Amino acid sequence: MPPVIAVTGASGRIGGRVAARLAEQGQAVRLLGRNPARLPRIAGGSIGPAASYGNGEAMRAACDGVKTLFLVSAQESQGRVREHMTAVDAAVAAGVERLVYVSFLGASPDATFTFARDHWHTEEYIRASSLRYTFLRDSFYLDALARMAGADGVIRGPAGAGRVSAVAHDDIADSAVGVLLGEGHDSATYDITGPTAITLTEAADELTRFAGRPVVYQPESEDEAYASRSIFGAESWEVAGWVTSYEAIASGELAAVSDSVPKLAGHPAQTFTDFLRANPESYAHLRP
Question: Which residues form a coiled coil (predicted)?
Fold first, then answer.
C-alpha cells in the first residue's frame, strides 16, 4: 500500500483543493472532516471517519495508517490552540510521521492580528513534538479583499495606507501540494503570498474597475472600527480579530512578499486583478 496523506478540512476551500490535486496526481489521500457527509467524493480518494480537532480519540482513529497529515487550521475560537494541540497529539499517537500546517503570515506571540497569535502557539507545539513538520504561513485571501467591501461599495477599517500581500486559495493549494509531494521541506517555514502588496485604496480601485461602480476605502479609527462592528453581536474576542486584521495591515505586518508560490507551485502567484478576472462571483454583490 502506498503511503497515505490525510487532508483535514477537506470540505473547505483549501483542504478540498489540496485533496483533489493530490488525487489527480495518483497520491493515496484520505479526506477528513467533522461531518463525512459534507466531504467531496474524489476519484482515488477515501473518506475517513468523522473527526473534530478537539476529539483526540476520533482524530487518532482518523489518522490510523497515515504517514503525512495536512492540517488546516481550525475555525477561529477561544479554544482553537487547544484543539490544534489535541489534533497534534492524536497524530503522534496514530504514528503520523510528518505534518504540514497551514499557519498565518507574521505569526508571533505578539502579532497585531490576534488570531495570528494562535498560529504561533500552534507552531511552537508542533516544533516540540516528534513530528517532521513544514509551516505554510498564508497571507490574507484575495477573495477576502473583495468581501471587505460592503454592498454600499465601501471598505471600512483601520488599515491606513498599509499594504497586504493577499494570496489566492488556488495558489495556496498548489504550494501545499508541492510541499506534500516534494522533498527537502522538513523544518521549513514558507510565507505564501501574492506577487505584490497592495493598499485597500488600490483594492477598491480594482473593484471599481471590475464591478462598474464606485468602490472606496474609508479609513476608520480603532474606536470607530469597534463601534461599526458592534451591531453584529459577536463576542469580544471575535470582534478584536476583525479589527486587528486591519490594524495588522496598517502596521506593515502583512506587507511581506515572497517567491514561495512560484518555487513550490511552479507558476506565478495571482494578482488581485488576475483573481477578479477569473472570479467575477467574488464581486457580484457590488454590481449595480
Answer: none
DSSP state, residue 209? H
Residue 247 corresponds to which cell in the numbers above? 490594524
Contact 118, 203 (CB under 8 A): no
Torsion, Cα of 166, 169, 174, 178 (10° steps): 70
The domain defined by 4-139+167-193+257-269 folds into Rossmann fold (3.40.50)
DSSP H/E element including 246: helix 236-251
pLDDT digits (tens, 9 = 90+) for 195-210: 999 999 999 999 999 9
The secondary structure of the chain in percent helix, strand, coil, rounded to multiples of 5, reads: 45, 15, 40
Distances (CA, A) of 116 to 52, 81, 88, 251, 253: 21, 11, 18, 14, 11
Mean pLDDT, rounded, for 42-68: 96
| DSSP 8-state symbol, 131 | S
